[in-house]
Amino acid sequence: MTENRYLIFNPFLYMTLLSLGINHQTAPIDIREKIAFSPEQLSGALLELQKLPAINESVIVSTCNRTEIYCDASDDSRSTISDWLSSFHNMENNSLAPYLYQHANHEVARHLFRVASGLDSMVLGESQILGQLKSSYDQARAGNNVNAILDRLFQHSFSVAKRVRTDTEIGSHPVSVAFSAVNLSKQIFGDLSKQRALLIGAGETIELVARHLKSQGIQSIVIANRSLEKAQILAQTLGATATSISAVPDELVNADIVISSTASQLPILGKGATEAALKLRRHRPIFMVDLAVPRDIESQVGDLEDVYLYTVDDLKNVVDENMRHRELAATAAQEIINVEVTTFSQWLKTHQSADHIRQLRNQTEIIKQQCIDKAIAQFMLDNDAKKALLMLANSLTNKMLHAPTLAMRKAIKTDDQATIQFLKSLMASE
Predict the structure, then answer these.
(1) Tell me, what's the pLDDT at 132?
(2) Overall average pLDDT of the 375-398 stretch
(3) Which residue has the higher pLDDT, 373 or 159?
(4) Which fold has domain 5-167?
(5) Is the pLDDT of residue 32 over 70?
(6) Which residue from 250, 176, 229 is spatially nearest to 206, judged by alpha carbons?
(7) Is the pLDDT of residue 12 over 50?
(8) In the chain, what are the domain boundaries?
(9) How far apart are CA 410 and CA 419, in angstroms?
């Protein structure tokens, strides 16, 4: 049986809750791209990570804005994990050092609770990250990488995120122009299930608008674009109808909501075409949002009585105000997180203390058995019980005091009085 005397009375090699990673705040996109894990890589990466020495549990979180590793591992394994991360992505060791952040024990919980609640996201309060965390946790659990510590940590983070969403307004105020546009349309029409939308353009912003409208149960969407093929591709993914930009005046007759975002240098929709459409609609109102710069919709359209026209600047004011609301909510959310971190920290200390005692007893048992085996061998050799007993006592004493002696010498050398007094207290007789 291999002995490991250094573990005795050495708390620094016991298991510690660790996390390390990079995100949009610490690393540029070219670095984030290099160490992102694709869905196809993740299972193999978890398997490799779990094989590292002193890794007990592990979860990998990888999104466009962050790559993070959560582990229950020995405290001295941080550099090992960092080197593995670099090696897995064919990067030189220490190349990630300027971008990495690391946390241990209750600070891991604080960080993860902030991430799950959207407080550490590029867009404050966004909720998408929670689903990504759940997927990462599920995949790690499916690979048997998760045991008591990380299971408790991630489940607690999910409940914290839910509480933050319930008890604060962190997600109540939209902070993207796309969502703000849809939110305004809801304020005007209420239920969108009977409304028809005309979207002009086929870029990322229009796609986001379309997805938000679909989530609100919009009756139908028409996407108009200069490139009919591009409009058709986007429409197919959304269950919408595609048309050319020239058909906008005709489509306007049936449109209750018009949202435009193109790169056109000239207006696409003017006052005359809108007036004609309003007559055919018998002056049923049209809600319009122009997200383009330069503008796609002539400003005079806003003068028409039955048109509600908003520009990107109007929405920016809404977004800025909503961001202020989110920042206030983030303060309340942080207070919730502080309380929950204390709760988790108390559980972690209890769990780790039990583990430490168990490991200490197990290691002591190993040393005891080694000494007994040696003493029995000596007794079998010369049948001298006293000699065997002295060997047992000396061997057991030497082995049990080996690590504390090394620690005491080091503490005396560095004048570490706290450690000196602690080690002396271990040997004090009652």
Answers:
(1) 94
(2) 79
(3) 159
(4) Beta Polymerase; domain 2 (3.30.460)
(5) yes
(6) 176
(7) no
(8) 5-167, 177-316, 356-427
(9) 9
pTM, to two decimals: 0.66
341: tokens are 């971190």
177-316: in CATH 3.40.50.720: yes
Amino acid of residue 19: S
Report the catalytic residues.
64
Asked if the model's pLDDT at residue 250 lies above 60, the reply is yes
Quick check: bond before 294 cis, omega within 30? yes
Instruction: Give the number of other CB atoms < 10 A from CB of residue 61.
Output: 24
pLDDT digits (tens, 9 = 90+) for 252-301: 999 999 999 998 999 999 999 999 999 999 989 999 999 998 999 999 99
Confidence class for position 3, pLDDT limits 50, 70, 90 = very low
Amino acid at 170: I
